[in-house]
């Protein structure tokens, strides 16, 4: 069943039925201030750290019909009293005549019609601002006048979000709300908590006069708190109590009497939910956003930001689903994932100490470096600051405090304290930044390592190049009995945790790929000896890998401390892993014959109609010697589930060997846009990649979960643009090396690169998958397939024939 459609002209997905299988969300603002809004108007908003500076209460485990965080009621005065409903459908669940939730770039717009009243509400955070705007427009569609009231409501949480759940005595005693009365009936309601480390207050206000308000949930719901959000008893009264809560469950509800509206009449209410140090000092800014023209400008500025962001690359291919994802929704998801890492989503609620992952963000940044290299560089610098002197990296860190830790590894005394892959991802991030920008001087920037002295000061600094070299040397110095890179606590697959001494084929191949990138940099710097050294490292690991890991039809995935193979034909469970077949191709470790054979094994044993399984067959019962993978039933997550992140690497591997048809088949299998007609099975948003889909060993095969904040976003964008379309930045220029389905007649790409715009048209009249026969730039034939760097601010016309 379809629940909505893509509107590419408006760069929106429009939901037409609010009764979705699960909540769908959209992001507003950023980590500095923002969060997400769901398709029925609920929201989770924070400023900075979601664990210790959360603003509204959103508990996703409660039924989808329940109010969460923020909502809106419209009240109509009838002859026999009041009729009220929510234009968001939730929580009143009234029958609607029209419902649309426009999921836009940085905003959600909900349009609905109930009982002859049309509501049009746009929800967003002005760019780099500390407030959520809800721009509410109400129109009377009836053929007679009607009295209308508008009552927006927020429910606050304690700033320290975990306290909401683990201390139901202390939390209610510390939260208070106060009213700040202003001229012309304007009111700002502030909410704060005692015993807080800073003095910030939350506030809720609007641009219209407020006749009354409520700050106590018990009073708002009525009936001694046994009223419901679907039918708050207080809304049957003319006014709210205007009580300023001294404790309890703090909310803020504002009563706006819009008065009698004539047929066709429209009125507008603009609310602000924000946080500041001092409301009196903030009033000038609050007043600015009470002005309708300023709000319109803020929304226009937000749209301009996204237009600029997306203008870096635009594609026109024969596949509209491909175009939809690559031009709009995939780069949008890359930006959101870069902002939030795995910090705050419908699935990771930002509680505890997880923060940002070193591995996660090192990959996320790859997806936005072409669009916003400056912001990407800032994130890379942060990541380098949590790399240790020995070259390894802390697994996760808080981007506000920059305090890092080892993640789950710190909990296990019988396992290594480091993740064997973390530190290598930063090599890819820096290399991609250099190739995108040409900012080679970045390598000379001094950045501290994470290790501190007793005063909390860094023990040592190093240039970016030194950071990268230490990352390489850490893996070089930590190899096992087969000459392969050690696993550490885990590699990319967090759920296989083997005792110290285990070796990881993934880490070995990631190391190989990082070495290729370091060789590129060394050669560009004319560091001949360094390039030769890394070439030798690469050959040594390549030989060790091929000597130890070939299993006859595919590559082995792990060796435990005793030298036993995992991911082998000799195992009962998880005989084959997809990453052990794709990454040897990416690292250039696999000889051509083995690359072809192992990728064929992926298609034969792991591929399904809904994507490639991470491994097969699945474990069926917990095994503490192997780890978290065995906590899932067969077909779920890492245990035989379709992990989309790994699907992308298989796509890239197929393009490297020249198999464009299979790469394209794999891409289509997991493109969320293609799921739009089958949402009852898929369930998640069709405009973003989820993390995983249940595999064919699970009875709910095809069900997706953990959408939005997934490394899949960055890698999918790279696979589509750099490997399928083959527009690949390098230190020497823009490489053109497409690997497309043979049936395509060609494609067109507009790409901004190094202060020039390239209009690239590729003709495929011979219906090949790979190989450029002729390359013409501005009318001149170019030898090879590298488009020169012009850096002149002009457009350049590129014609290529395959």
Automatic annotation (TrEMBL):
Alphabetized GO MF terms: carbohydrate binding; cellobiose phosphorylase activity
Gene Ontology biological-process entries: carbohydrate metabolic process
Occurrences of domain Glycosyl hydrolase 94 supersandwich (ranges): 11-291
UniProt keyword DNA-binding, yes or no: no
Pfam family, one: GH94_b-supersand
Enzyme class, first EC level, given as a word: transferase
Keywords: Glycosyltransferase, Transferase
EC number of this enzyme: 2.4.1.20
The protein, known as: Cellobiose phosphorylase
Organism, as annotated: Mahella australiensis (strain DSM 15567 / CIP 107919 / 50-1 BON)
Organism phylogeny: Bacteria, Bacillati, Bacillota, Clostridia, Thermoanaerobacterales
